[in-house]
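Figure 6 in text form: structure in, sequence out.
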């Protein structure tokens, strides 16, 4: 019984700390998940039987629902949500643009370097100016190049002499 007297508060407090870390410092899910599991373990250790543990969990969930309802009705839930969530939206007018799927059409195409590639620069591929990145090597202006990979908006090229 001494174990339960010490373990229950430790597990519940440690679980609350991990959930708070999840909300305010370490987003990603793992800390919050472990925190919830620790709190549930604390509640079940406190119970003498599984049925009693389930009863405690039901009461706990009911209390949480009532608190959330009160917070929602008083408007405090919205203020809390604005404090813990990112309110900014990414908009195309602000420069947030997803990679164009048509970049994949440049794969294995050839062209020439319009600027010095060290490693980034501009190339002419199929008559179009394209921002490219060399594989890491310096490529002189006017060199023949081949597109070897497309990763999102990065078009990666290699000098054709090295093929």
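Output sequence:
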């Amino acid at each position: 019984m001494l174990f339960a007297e010490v373990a229950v508060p430790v597990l519940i407090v440690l679980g609350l700390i991990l959930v708070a870390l999840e909300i305010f410092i370490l987003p990603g899910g793992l800390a919050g998940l472990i925190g919830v599991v620790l709190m549930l373990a604390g509640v079940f250790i406190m119970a003498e039987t599984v049925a009693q543990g389930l009863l405690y969990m039901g009461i706990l969930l009911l209390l949480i629902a009532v608190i959330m309802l009160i917070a929602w009705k008083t408007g405090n839930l919205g203020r809390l949500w604005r404090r813990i969530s990112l309110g900014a939206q990414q908009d195309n007018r602000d420069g947030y643009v997803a990679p164009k799927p048509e970049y994949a059409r440049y794969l294995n195409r050839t062209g020439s370097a319009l600027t010095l590639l060290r490693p980034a620069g501009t190339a002419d591929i199929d008559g179009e100016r394209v921002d490219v990145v060399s594989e890491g090597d310096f490529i002189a202006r006017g060199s023949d190049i081949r597109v070897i990979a497309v990763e999102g908006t990065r078009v990666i090229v290699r000098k054709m002499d090295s093929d």
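Caption detail: The two ends are 73 Å apart (CA to CA).
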